[in-house]
# Entry
Amino acid sequence: MKTRKIKGRTVFVVEDDRKISGILEDYLRSAGHEPRSFYDGRSVVDAVRSEEPAAVILDIMLPASDGLTICRKLREFSAVPVLMLTAKVEEIDKISGLAFGADDYVTKPFSAQEVIARVNAMIRRAEGRITNNPAGHVYLVDEAGQRVAWHGEWLDLSPSEFRILAAMMKRPGQVFSRDQLLDALGDHALDSGDRAIDSHIKNIRRKIVAVDHKARCIASVYGSGYRFEPD
# Structure
């Protein structure tokens, strides 16, 4: 899987009404964001895949592809915060949006200030998902998205590899026994053992080195286990 650079506060606005899109762009810029507008649903998914934004404002009714379908496709690979815009007021439409993976919704007509406030809240929550990044360290752990970034690139980790690496990154310098790392796997540990942990560690090291060839951040501790040393 190709790694993606972590982007700043770019916000995608997916809205076919250019007047509404323009208003949202102005308010987003005033709030310090960098808006990028899409007027139909054809290229949004690929754009998110190649340039992960800080959030997506997504209208339900769009040409080419509706917002619910787009949201469902995004959730197949991304945890990007999604705010849905809809002119529909029926409860089932709101529930559908949330069920398809939206984080929040606003019903038209709306206050642009409210939309920006909700977008800012989503971004704050999303940033709160990224944990254990002490000053000067080069890694980010995204708990909700179950992914780890190293030097600004998302590592191509399996679910088991993510759980092991995330557990170690939360306590840098601590020695983890193989049993402790098995515990970190939870349900994924049912068919795993000591040798499986060693294999996972080998794969994690290889994937980090693929991004940073100088990295030697997971040390083997003879007779005890492994220790994460970010520096």
Observations:
- The longest strand covers residues 10-14.
- The mean pLDDT is 82.
- The chain has eight helices and twelve strands.
- The helical segments are 18-30, 44-50, 67-74, 91-99, 112-129, 159-170, 178-185, 194-211.
